[in-house]
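thread: overnight batch results

M.L. [08:02]
morning all. the overnight job finished for the chain we discussed friday. pasting input first so we're all looking at the same thing
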Amino acid sequence: MKKVIIIPGSQRKQSINGRLAHYLQSLLKAHCEVEVLDVAKVDLPLFNQDLESNDEVLVRVQALHRPLWSADGLIVVSPEYNGSYSPFLKNTVDWVSRLPRLPGGQDYPNPFHGKAMLLASATPGRSGGILGLQATRNLFAYLGGLILPEQISLPNANEAWDEAGLLKDANLDTFINNSLRLFLNLIENTTSSSR
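M.L. [08:03]
and the structure it wrote out:
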């Protein structure tokens, strides 16, 4: 069974992006093994090359690298901060992507390169995080991710779900399910071609 890791871009406990991440998990769990990264356990300092020789920090980065590298696909669900991705997401990516350049880095190749990826964002406003999604796409394209053209943009996210935890907008829910189906197809195609 294929494995998918969902990376929330917010550490806030009541994050609407965290809620979207778990919603996507609920839709995917019948089709693949899916895990939402526990952001509370991502305890990394602000990226600083002076800390690259700090064994305690490196152990934490290496532990984060392992599930990302072993996943068949990644979903990034990040809020929009001033028209870009969140500082938490950028810092996490900076640390993990730096590992291959450090001594012994051959054991930690870029976990994003050639990886099937889907991008998503939720905002309380009407934009749905469109600008942040574009910036996020640029970031992961630079790192070699195979990013699905479709992206999930959830506007007015504070009011998007009903009391049963389902999306109120049936058309958006259909779009999300279709996007996830295309994402699973992308995973199948990329993992098959790499064999």
